[in-house]
Amino acid sequence: MSEGPTVDDTTAWWSTAITRIAPGEIELRGYPIEQLIGKLDFVSTVWLLTTGGLPTATQSRLLEAALVASVDHGPQAPSIASARMAATCGVGLNSAVANGVNVLGDTHGGAGQQCVTLLSELVATAAQGRDLGEVADEAVAGYRARKAFVPGFGHRFHPRDPRRDVLLGLVEEAVEAGEVSGDYLRAGLAVESALAKGRRAVPMNIDGVTAIVYGELGVEPELARGFFVLARSVGILAHAWEESRSGRRVKGPLPPPLLAGYTGEPTRPFTGD
Questions:
Q1: CATH topology classification for 56-253
Q2: pTM of this prediction?
């Protein structure tokens, strides 16, 4: 007859390198929480918990810039609209926020992760001796052949994303200071240049420019999406809170008395045959 789990087996079940908890003690990555409060800013704490180390000043500045740039894009964004509608349906604020976050998927909210993956592939290929411009041209040609969007480039609303230039400027400053390699910056600009050849320019959007930031910081693609979700949660929270205080109940996607168009069969009698 086999013995059941030991105490060590049980405590190892949820073992973690992130947080140590004991009566009267809380440590984050080995740092007592009382030594961090009031001394370590929130963005640096995010970096500490997710990567295991304290960020440099440049890492903290770039991460904070990327997070601030991604917080909100107005109530027309599905994640925001979803949270606002949920807030009028009698659910708690936490449920409304969760409703908005759960809308963030591959199509709405996933382009940043996809762009980090793309740029990583370009950087790796160029490191093998290939010309970066040629590699970018080939990648863009592949997307066009599949009639697919290049993730991180172009915007359905902005001819030129107002967040692009300022974020790129911060990355360029970090490259000049020798704080980051500049590989992802060059890869992103190469894709942007490839998209413009023979056609109108397709500037990178917030997903593309933050993908450059995250790539330069060494953030893995899936964690980059996590950072976007973390940032957008701020906007989702603000909108859900505002809507919850509006007094409107059960707010749908269309203002009354507008109704969604009907494309089915015309009205017809039911004969029972």
A1: Cytochrome p450-Terp; domain 2 (1.10.230)
A2: 0.93
